[in-house]
Amino acid sequence: MTPGPWRPEKPPKPSDVRRDVDDELQFHVETLAEKHERSGIPREEARRMAAKEFGNRQDATEACVDIDRARLEQERRGVWFEHLVRDVTHGTRRLRQSPTFTLITILTLALGIGPMIAIFSLLNSVLLRPLPFPHASELVVVRETFPLSNGSHGTGSVSYPNYLDWKAQSTTLDLSAAGYPTNANLQDASGPERLAVAAIDSSVLPTLGIQPALGRNFLTEECRASGPAVVILSDAFWRRRFNADPTVLSRTLVLDDIAQTIVGVMPPDVTYPSRGPAIDVWRPLQVPVDPSLRGSHFLFVLGRMKPGQTVEHAAADMRQIAARLEQLYPGPQEKRGVDLTRYDEYLVGRTRPQLLVLLGAAGFVLLIAAANAASLLLARAGTRERDVAVLAALGASRARIAQQFLIESLLLSAAGATVGLVLARFAVRGIVGLVGGTLPRGTIIHDDWRVIAFIWGTIVVTTLLFGIVPSLRAGRSNAQRSLRDGGRGSTGGRERSMFRNTLVVGQFALSLVLLAGAGLLMRTLVALLSTDTGMSTAHVLTLRLPVPLGSPRYPTPTDVVTRFYGPMLAGVRAIPGVERAGLINLLPLQESGSNGNFDVVGRTYASVSEQPFAEFRVVSPGYFAALKIPVVHGRDVAEGDVATSQPVVLINDVAARQLFPHEAAVGRELAFGPVGPTNPAVMIVGVVGSVRQARIESAPAAELYFPTGQAGRVLANMSLVVRVTGDPIAMTRAIEAAIRTVDRFQPVFGVFTMADVVDQSIADRELYFGLLGAFAAIALILAMAGIYGVIAYSVTQRTKEFGIRLALGSDLGRVQRMVVWQGGRLALAGLAIGVPAAYLLAGVLSAVLYGVTAADPLTFASVAGLLAVVSLVASYLPARRVMRVDPIIAMRAE
Amino acid sequence: MPPTDVEVRQGTLDLLVLKALSRGSMHGYDILEWLRRATGDQLRLEDAALYPALHRMEARQLIAAEWGLSANNRRARFYCLTPEGRTALRAEAASWRQYAALVAKVLSATHRS
Predict the structure, then answer these.
(1) Chains A and B: how many Cβ contacts under 8 Å?
(2) How far apart, in whole angstroms, are the C-alpha atoms of residue A685 and residue A667?
(3) Which tens digit of pLDDT belongs to each residue from A266-303?
(4) pTM of the model
(5) ipTM of this predicted complex?
(6) Chain A contact present for B58, CB below 8 A
(7) A699: number of CA atoms within 13 Å, CB side?
(8) Nearest CA of chain A to the CA of B63: how many Å?
(9) pLDDT band at A591; cut points 50, 70, 90
(10) Which of A28, A60, A70 is facing B52, going by the closest CB pair?
(11) CATH code of B84's domain
């Protein structure tokens, strides 16, 4: 590797190689010929002899040329690499020599790159990471559609008889059915635990294209009513509870008091049919084949398209089947159709636009950060012009100089990305910890090669964004002039400040867009939080009490009410500090509803679609009082409303207005199906205030409330609602103790204050606002730093000019105002571009806004005002320095 | 009667060239002349075959080359040993001597039954 004294200064060009070899051999031949001539042989003869004696000149030439070319190629590569190594080491040294510049630039870039990495990491896990099923693009979700009162269609779950008919008749799809995830109580030596359970048909695993990692799938004969109690464990649950013991098969698990035989363990990462949260245990789907279940919709149906099928074909096929079923079963199937959605689309379709918007916002932050970094580099380039001139004078080419600067930029962005990666790690962990469950597939974040590739891509793009212009400028600078000017390229300076001014304008425009987005989301959250939900959520604790209804402990609904709920409520109400306590099956704002059609006795309806439709809830006495929901007419549900007494119902005032606009509701009767001895009419005994049941932003719908004493299976999954005088969470222990006094095996889970429940219902918007708000804040800080840097630099550059102005009698205030105006002008230009841009881009948020429009003038005016103030403050700080200018010293400065 | 010419054995040309250049820088013609003189003109080697060997050794950085003026005032390519070449010469020469001695020993061994 040592160059040595013999190493040629410059390696020959590839085109010279053949000529050199030829010359070398020619010398040999001629020397031979001369030797012969000296011994008296005639010239011509001597030459012929020499050529003959030399041997195969042709072959030797070719061999030498080949060897030399290969060697030159290798040397060229070596030289390039040597330059690279030298640039990297020199670059590192130069950056270490100006630690303030280096630190600020790295931090700026970290703030720009960090959000990008964080959002991409989320986006990768949620959108890009393939589903853990082979050929997942063939999977489609099949749902039933039903007519809505406004003429459109809703989509919902599938009934068991419909599923069986679809499965038998479809020529395009292999279908499978699963029950929506529920919960079960696990009892074993380590205490009660609440498990997430899903019931699946034996065809689910073949449809998904997977097999249990251990053991076997459910058998067809296990998937029928009163089939055997068998379970498949999730990989995570198997590791957590059984330490990944491979001998777990055929051992038992006591769920809801019933021993279940373990037959298999799922592969990791499978959460089907849950969208995000993990499933602990799968059970076989065991539903009776009963024609009356055709109107009972509770299944999640997934299909795999047969080879060569398209979604369109499959949808047409399924629509035909649905039309046949409507003809065969005009009652339950009236106007019910079918909807096909790709499974991946079903999982993440709603999340995709939000994540893409966030990635775009992170991209804006990166642009703003890159603008600051470019500005910093340019300001530094001014002080380095002399270095560059020396390099150029020593014969370094423009490309080499530009490469040196670009390598420095690359080092800076790699360091920035490293710091940004650390920031992103913390951010992602925090986000997943806080709201992982609200993102589909969001509970498992894997960083894979896509994230690594993205980080490298970001580093390269960032380097080009902020480094390319300063590098090219450095390569172009005029060596002679710079040396002569003593390093102050004055004309170059003007061009440079033009460029930096443009960057500031762009930064303000981008910041305005981000701030406007964050502002709109903030107003949405304020609107959501100030909406009257119809209930009082302060001082209320809620928890879920899943009861093993149907197990030996509680064989019938009446047993649950008399032996558990009754004494338990009495015990809870007796705790000092508890004001009210009651039960409801579906907490407001937490769970999707159960609902259906019914008749008002005494009225006739032409068809099912003309029947009234309402949400159904089951409540115990004390529930309305606990949430301060007023009973406006009639009475509350009472302890006396039991299975043997007159069936009663309460309706909310929305239902009262819809059903009985001009008459009293109390005393009227409702019917659910044909009235008879086993299905008596139900009397309305009261009207209660309406609450926002499904979502805060949806106006209350008609609702019916049935008393617990007259309810059925839903009693297995009730939530307890307790109003207390003090801090609700502080009461948890006493309430749990009161519950365990009645049933010591009863697990309690989902303990939240009602205020938490409200918060969770808007968690997606809070996440969105939180991230966009954070990005906007970073953007604001960076924009402020950017304009400060530009103005401060320009004040330094114009010291002499200010000195002259002050000496000529210009007053200080005037000069300062001039400087502040210089910054203000740039900010205004940025705002002038930013406002229309934000106006155009805010449309992407309109789907998540509530109580504010995407073109809200107040938001736009506020953020523009905020940015204007920020720009004036950031410009005023350097302007104060003008005060310290002494005209005499300033004028002598050069 | 002059002894028969000896053909250069495979792999030994490099060693001979290194030895030649250990005396100082030379061009190809001089290297051959020196080798012929050193062997009493018994070495049989085609002149042309020397050059690919020289260029290969240059690529392996055992020798380095430079253009210069020859004794007859012509432009000629001069070769010299690099430090790596010098090391290689020592190692190769030692190993060659050892091998030659070994071969000689075997050939001079007498058969005993």
Answers:
(1) 81
(2) 6
(3) 998 888 887 767 889 999 988 777 766 676 677 889 99
(4) 0.71
(5) 0.90
(6) yes
(7) 4
(8) 9
(9) low
(10) A60
(11) 1.10.10.10
